[in-house]
Design brief:
716 residues, alpha/beta, Chitobiase, domain 2, Alpha-d-glucuronidase, C-terminal Domain, 3 domains, eight-stranded parallel barrel, 21 helices, binds 4-O-methyl-beta-D-glucopyranuronic acid, signal, polysaccharide degradation, Glyco_hydro_67_C, xylan alpha-1,2-glucuronosidase activity, Xylan alpha-1,2-glucuronidase
């Protein structure tokens, strides 16, 4: 009896295991990103096969078209099980890759595509089921080989998501860059995904396969430039050995349309002891930079240019010599101009120690750069962070957008310095969309932030972790940045759906719930960290965890208490005319709307206003009760994110399921810590009781103050 029972049990377990392995998808480690090319089902395979019976590229292959052909081999090999061989003759069912140079009839007066192609510029593409030379083909057409590569990725993407073929697409911005904050010793400032992928020691001789896969991933999104090193830069990066290393990376990235840029340290020639000063007006300094630019272009003929962090957070700059940011930027720009290089000069500056420290930090970038407008050389762009403080979970757009005639680059932070690193889930597509679509009100009828841009940069979240980004969901932030750099009108939700389908498979039972989680995630983080316009109340230095009580740092504007200004009388930073008047930096109509708390969107309320705790919110609740409700909602939603993921378990491969489940569990704990610590602290300041139904924090304020995060990553 005992024997047969255990036999029955064994049989049952065997059946369960067999069923589980039959349904659960195979494990994945995330290395393939959104370019996974897992087999399609039979009917989808048949329809793709019909579009690509052969692959035809008229004319000779170039490194870029070779990259497209290689991707098709890889992609169709995975999706269909085998890829068609390249053919030379156009036939029915061919997948045809053509530019007017390769197939002159595309440009003939009778070509129906001529005008459409002409409108696509150098990088755009069109996808079309059409007839060419009497044959039914699927056409990927563009004006250049890089357009063909982008079109190839778009075609593969449409297959992966199950979408119908995109008609045509062209980017609005020419500069679509990643900024790596990677140090030469391979640590990454604000990096939460391992070491820098750039192995400077092994370069230039040893070129990791990752560089090619990095290029593929970026080209698939249309990213066309990358700044290899941290804006807190070192002089060595501009010495010959490192230029040779950068050149080796540039060689790998070039076929994929990606240019290499470097962060230049202002005082490089002085620190290398090759000049006696770093004054931009010194002929010796100018000559040095000219020689340096010539040297770089000799090694990297298509070098993109420099990004510069000057006179910011202790970095050297032209102001050390009583020169302006424009003097500095223009001097570098003059050395790059003959080579068609550019300077991206960062506007992330705030008063150096000891100088007008009394001024609202949110105003300082504008105050420095607005008066210089019109003084910059044509190949200078001012690179502006999305908000005026620093990559907070939510910030209003920076007032420099729309205020300058000088071309402006957007700087987003893809790595989540202030949003829970790569351990908390926060899909940033919604944040990118919110900022890009915000109305600067700098023109009649409105003018979105997107419309004010000449380029866009994202601070990379890429590292040596097997999954590249620290977590699977953080891959989506790289993806969303790239897709929205290509098209600023893209909707975060559509981008999330694309990413989810490509990353987890185009099954609506998986895609729809994942998109829902993604779309909720960033607001969840805002709620448990910095609701209602609160900002910069994170832990000192590493910026992890709650620390609203901190008031003892070297500079007042590094202290959380400086930003939330909570006291018995109320909470929030008054940036109206009664306060710092930062609102005066915005367009008059914007300033008018945001000067009145009643017409200020509540998500920015405490950013612009200092209000009494009993201020009546739109919900009818007091500000105090509303603040508590937001913290509670943040915690509840963090728990819900976890539960939504758990419900997906049967449909996700075990490895990725577990890796994310562990993170979402950790996020619940982090949300609880934030909620409890902030409530304990703000209650100690407001002196108000917790309304009925609001749970008291689990510990004393002293306990929360004692929580530390030794060796938190990303902070050197
Ligand atoms: O957000 C802050 C970061 C610094 C960073 C700086 C900047 C590269 O805490 O780590 O330095 O901004 O953007 O320059």
């Amino acid at each position: 009896m005992r024997f047969s029972l255990s036999a029955a049990l064994a049989a049952l377990l065997f059946t369960l295991a067999a069923t589980a392995s039959a349904t659960a998808p195979p494990n994945e480690d995330g290395y393939d990103l959104w370019l996974r090319y897992r087999p399609l089902d039979k009917s989808a395979q048949a329809s793709v096969q019909a579009q690509a019976r052969s692959i035809v590229l008229p004319g000779a292959a170039t490194p870029t078209t070779q990259a497209a052909l290689d991707e098709l081999q890889k992609g169709l090999g995975g999706l269909l099980g085998r890829a068609p061989a390249p053919a030379t003759r156009i036939a029915d069912g061919a997948l045809l890759l053509a530019t007017p140079a390769r197939l002159p009839e595309l440009n003939s007066n009778t070509s129906p595509l001529r005008a459409e192609l002409a409108a696509l510029g150098n990088e755009g593409y069109l996808l079309r089921q059409t007839r060419v030379q009497g044959h039914n083909v699927t056409l990927i057409a563009a004006n250049s080989d890089i357009g063909l590569l982008y079109g190839t990725y778009a075609w593969l993407r449409d297959i992966g998501t199950g979408a119908k073929l995109e008609a045509s697409s062209a980017p609005t911005l020419q500069l679509r860059l990643l900024n790596h904050w990677d140090n030469l010793n391979r640590t990454v400032e604000r990096g939460y995904s391992g070491q820098s992928i750039w192995d400077w020691w092994a370069l230039p001789d040893i070129k990791d396969q990752r560089y090619t896969d990095y290029a593929r991933a970026n080209a698939s999104l249309g990213i066309n430039g990358t700044v290899l090193n941290n804006v807190n830069s070192k002089p060595e990066v501009l010495t010959a050995p490192f230029i040779a290393k950068a050149a080796a990376i540039a060689d790998v990235l070039r076929p994929y349309g990606i240019k290499v840029y470097l962060s230049a340290r202002w005082s490089t020639p002085l620190e290398l002891k090759e000049t006696s000063t770093a004054d931009p007006l010194s002929p010796e300094v100018q000559a040095w930079w000219k020689r340096k630019a010539d040297e770089i272009y000799k090694t990297i003929p298509d070098f993109g240019g420099f990004v510069v962090k000057a006179n910011s957070e202790g970095q050297p700059g032209p102001q050390d010599y009583h020169r302006t940011h424009a003097d500095g930027a223009n001097m570098l720009a003059a050395t790059l101009a003959p080579h068609k290089g550019i300077v991206m000069w960062r506007a992330f500056v705030y008063a150096p120690k000891g100088t007008h420290i009394g001024e609202d930090r949110a105003k300082q970038g504008f105050d420095e750069f607005k008066p210089l407008d019109g003084q910059f050389a044509p190949n200078v762009l001012v690179q502006v962070k999305n908000g005026a403080i620093d990559f907070q979970p939510r910030e209003p757009f920076h007032p420099l957008f729309g205020a300058l005639r000088t071309p402006v680059m957007m700087e987003f932070q893809i790595t989540k310095e202030y949003l829970g690193f790569s351990t908390d889930m926060a899909y940033l597509g919604t944040m990118f969309e919110e900022t890009l679509q915000a109305d600067t009100m700098t023109a009649a009828g409105g003018r979105t932030v997107a419309k004010t841009l000449s380029g866009i940069a994202g601070v990379s979240n890429i590292g040596t972790d097997r999954n590249w980004a620290g977590s699977h969901f953080d891959q989506a932030n790289w993806y969303a940045f790239g897709r929205m750099a290509w098209n600023q009108q893209a909707k975060a939700k559509d981008v999330a759906a694309e990413w989810a389908a490509l990353t987890f498979g185009a099954d609506q039972r998986v895609v729809a719930p994942i998109v829902k989680m993604m779309m909720e995630s960033r607001e969840t983080v805002v709620n448990y960290m910095t609701p209602l316009g609160l900002h910069h109340i994170m832990g000192t230095g590493h910026h992890h965890g709650p620390a609203p009580w901190v008031d003892n740092l070297e500079r007042p504007d590094w202290n959380p208490v400086y930003y939330h200004r909570a006291g018995r009388d109320g909470i929030g930073f008054d940036r109206t005319a009664k306060g710092s008047n930062a609102l005066a930096q915005y367009a008059p109509e914007f300033a008018r709307q945001y000067s009145d708390p009643k017409t200020t969107p509540e998500q920015f309320l405490l950013w612009f206003h200092h209000l009494p705790w009993d201020y009546k919110m739109r919900s009818g609740r007091t500000l105090w009760a509303e603040l508590l409700a937001h913290y509670d909602k943040g915690l509840a939603d963090a728990r819900s994110l976890h539960d939504q993921w758990v419900a997906l378990k049967p449909l996700i491969d075990a490895r990725r399921y577990t890796e994310e489940e562990q993170r979402l569990t950790r996020q619940m704990a982090n949300a609880l810590l934030w909620r409890d610590a902030c409530i304990a602290y703000f209650q100690s300041v407001s002196g108000l009781p917790l309304p009925a139904g609001v749970k008291a924090p689990a510990h004393s304020l002293e306990y929360y103050k004692s929580v530390t995060f030794p060796y938190a990553p990303g902070h050197w």
